[in-house]
Amino acid sequence: MLLEFSIENFLSFKDLNTLSMIAAKSFKEHLDSHTIQLDNKVKLLKSAVLYGNNASGKSNFLEAMAFMRATVINSFRDALVENSDKKFHLFKMELNTDMI
Q1: Which of 45, 52, 64, 83 could make a disulfide contact with 56, Cβ separation 3.0–4.6 Å?
Q2: For 7-43, what is each residue's pLDDT tens digit?
Q3: Distance in angstroms (rounded) separating the CA atoms of residues 48 and 4
Q4: Alpha-carbon distance 69 to 61, whole Å?
């Protein structure tokens, strides 16, 4: 279950960006059908939508999630491989001239 996902310095994302699945306290409509009660204090959203202008980073955000998924799934296998055999491609923020 995904509660929060944050990225920074990945492809077109320079600054920290976070997707949170924790429902806002002001969220009052459709509580029974759109949220899951985790405990007495926390309600989670059942779904989320990414939207925005063209070239605003939606695909890069999904690419970051796919990268994290692959990292988690392959972490045990990669831990067994020698350091010289590891192939880990880094995706840095390409538009940032401060880090060159």
Answers
A1: 52
A2: 888 887 888 888 888 888 777 777 777 888 878 888 8
A3: 12
A4: 12
CA 51, 54, 59: angle at the middle one, nearest 5?
Answer: 65
Q: What is the pLDDT of residues 39-77, one digit of tens each?
A: 888 888 888 888 888 987 888 888 888 988 888 887 777
Sorted by where each begins, the domain ranges of the chain are 4-85
The tokens describing 5, both together, are 């996902």
Whats the size of the chain, residue-wise?
Answer: 100
What is residue 13's three-state secondary structure? strand
**Which token pair is 13?**
């994302």
Judge contact between 7 and 64, C-beta under 8 A. yes
Q: Does the predicted TM-score (pTM) go above 0.85? A: no
pLDDT reading at 84 higher than 70: no
